[in-house]
Amino acid sequence: MNPNPSASLVQALSNHQQKRPVSFHVPGHKSGKAYSRWAADPVIETFLTGGLEWDQTEIDGLDDLHAPEEAILEAQKRAAEAYGADSTYFLVNGSTVGNLAMIHTVCRQGDRVLVQRNSHKSIFHALALVGARPIFLNPRVESITGIPTGVTPEHVKGALEAYPDTRAVILTSPNYYGMAMDLAKIAEICHKHAIPLVVDEAHGAHCGFHADYPASALGQGADLVVQSTHKMGLAMTMGACLHTQGERFDKEKLHWYLSVFQSSSPSYPIMASIDLSTYFMTKYGKLWLTEAKQMVEAFYQQMKPYEDLFYIPKYMEKNSSYEAMDPLKLTIHFHYGQDGFSWRDRLQKEGIFLELAQERHTLAVLGPGTNQNDMDRFTDSLIRSVESMKPVIGQENLRGISNIVWNKEPWEAMEHPLTQVIPANMSAVPWRQAIGKISGEIIIPYPPGVPILHVGERWTLEKMQWIQIQKDKGLKFQGVSDSSLETVRVLPDA
Ligand SMILES: Cc1ncc(COP(=O)(O)O)c(C=O)c1O
Fold first, then answer.
1. Do 198 and 334 contact (CB within 8 A), yes or no?
2. Distance between CA 88 and CA 225 in Å, rounded?
């Protein structure tokens, strides 16, 4: 027995809070600041009295998530009304569990589905578990940043004509960076083919509440949608919603899969926080989004003198690869001298924590808990940082290299099926020797959790170079057997 018991996670969270951190990452409530700002509201005040006493179970008066009849049913109905859904289901394991349930509902083993290649790992895990036969829709790539964006209606139309046996189309919008697609046209195309449009809207719990923000997937006609209410709404981490619309899926199947994948002891504090988020969005959503947009506009004004040093995909700016941009996602792409990782580290030293860093950009995420003071600290730090970049002007204008890893073909069928288990017949090789070989593991840069290589795909020099750069800068990878990536698992050639 350890004579000096300790609790490292408890300590780590406490240490983090002592830094008085400024959060430009999820969850949207930003260390509870959203709750404290609106604490005078009696409903929010009541929620704040919760604490451990609210950690309850399915006793009389508290309803049951798996057979809701009272408070949970009413809360789900209010969420459905607020979001324009026919039905809404509360999720206590994030959009991850929603993606698992949606995909199991719309396809069976061997079914053909179209899926956006830059989807979250939970989508691919679901497809692997089902044993579906995905066709990857390769995303367009934003020209300056190299960020994969989305797909166009023409793209989906063409793929559906090429694969008329497709059972569902599975897309992600807005993406991690807030870029949103024209889902209305895509929904129309899917419905002409009598198949459902399934949308991972994990980053869009606030969509549809304000005309200056991306329209919601449901509002554009999607059939099944998940939202991480904890990311851009007010819920606690893991609080999410699955919304449905219409009859293009089997409701009983969906209920069954939700009962399979969700805990039989769902967290009441999380469920209550989803309910609170609906309340907040209905009552204060428009005000919050208006104020947030003003904050972002002021930020752009302050950044104007430095526009030649870095690039921010401007909100609501249209280009060919996405229709709308979420103002709350600030992607800062450095042209000269700096990389995203070192800038992230620099801000972190000042107590400012960002959502993501990659080789040429960083992502800062605003939410209902972001206040002007946080925004000022972020802006000051960015200005000081870009000032120090001036001496290196004249260097090559470095574009994001990410575009090299995305296949330029509009779609591709997998050579091997996605598999749920790591195949037994594989070997570990020094990773440089893997070029041209078939990967035996899924390689997932995290964040954002979008796999760069699937089990069954071939290693290419470009992917290896991209991974090398990210790895050298300290990006972490999930799914790999050797976290140092010194070796990777490959399959024998067929
Ligand atoms: C696009 C997308 N979908 C799904 C998820 C999973 O969401 P959650 O963390 O709520 O399970 C994420 C998480 O980052 C995501 O970025």
1. no
2. 9
Query: What tokens were used for 267?
Result: 């967290």
pLDDT in tens, 108-147: 999 999 999 999 999 999 999 999 999 999 998 887 788 8
Of 122, 125, 270, 363, best ligand 1 pocket probe by most atoms within 8 Å of the beta carbon:
122
Residue-wise pLDDT for 366-418, tens only, equals 999 999 999 999 999 988 887 776 645 444 444 555 556 778 889 998 877 77
CA of 390 to the centre of ligand 1 (A): 37
- Compute, in angstroms, the gap from residue 457 CA to the centroid of ligand 1: 23
**Do residues 460 and 450 touch, judged by C-beta distance below 8 A?**
no
Q: What is the pTM of this model?
A: 0.95
Q: Residue 273: CB within 6 Å of ligand 1?
A: no
Tell me if 244 CB under 6 Å of ligand 1. Answer: no
- Is the CB of 101 within 6 Å of ligand 1? no
CA 96 to centroid of ligand 1, rounded, Å: 6
How much of the chain exceeds pLDDT 90, in percent?
A: 72
